[in-house]
Amino acid sequence: MSDGKTTKFTLDRANIPGIILAGGRSTRMGRDKAAVMLAGRTLLDHVIARLTPQVSSVAVNADRMTDQWSPLFLPDIIPGKAGPMAGIHAAMAHGANLAAVTHVITVSVDSPFFPSDLVDWLADVIDTPDKIAIATSESRSHPVFGLWPISLANELENWITHDEKRRVRDFLLRHDVTEVAFPLRPTRASLLDPFFNVNTPDDLAEAERWIKVMA
């Protein structure tokens, strides 16, 4: 017989897998962004180094993986390059195969400066098993930087398969989502948006300049 009390959900922060989304077309860069060199290391290496201390394991969602990249390779389950949400679905499905995992964190391979406390900040707002937490900065949402419940994997697959527009915002509107605002990062030059992303050769040159002022 129930005593009428509701058990509060507590996220196990020691058991959050991290998945790097690296399956984009990279059309504006003209080559695979994961392999682009920034300050002597690939973008993927920068992101792996930043994510690893924050999570229980690291995997990479991409079309293919080369031998020098050691993390687990997770291709999309849904065929047809269905966009970033297909990568998030692969992340959820991966988490569902791991013991006692309720949420997975996703980050983008083209954002080498994301916060070193990203997971902690997002985890702070997870108070129900089905809540999604999404990063924002300067009033802009960054849904690829999210903490996602694996319980939504089947629903997300169905949405991707049947929704022609596949707008991330449309999927989020169907669920309990908390946006977490991250501050700009002070540097010797100016303030850096921690979710600055490298989409073009010009962005890469700018990222090199940010590396120098943060040294």
Q: Would you give an account of this structure?
A:
By secondary structure, the chain is α/β, with parallel strands linked by helices. It is built from 6 helices and 11 strands. The strands form 3 sheets. It has a 7-stranded mixed β-sheet with strand order 5-4-1-6-8-7-9, with helices on both faces. A hairpin with a 4-residue loop joins strand 10 (185-186) and strand 11 (191-192). The longest helix is centred in the last third of the chain and has 14 residues, at 201-214. It is globular.
Question: Which CATH C-level class is it?
Answer: Alpha Beta
**How much β-strand is present in the residues?**
15-25%
Main sheet?
Answer: 7 strands, mixed
Order of helices and strands: EEEHEEHEHEEHHEEEH
Strand order, largest beta sheet? 5-4-1-6-8-7-9
Number of strands: 11
Calculate Rg over CA atoms: 17 Å
Dominant shape? globular
Mean pLDDT score, rounded?
A: 90
Summarize the structure.
The chain is α/β, with parallel strands linked by helices. The protein has 6 helices and 11 strands.
Topology at a glance:
Blueprint: E1 17-21, E2 37-38, E3 41-42, H1 43-51, E4 57-61, E5 72-74, H2 84-96, E6 103-108, H3 118-123, E7 132-137, E8 140-149, H4 153-162, H5 168-172, E9 177-181, E10 185-186, E11 191-192, H6 201-214
Parallel strand pairs: 1-4, 1-6, 4-5, 7-9
Antiparallel strand pairs: 2-3, 6-8, 7-8, 10-11
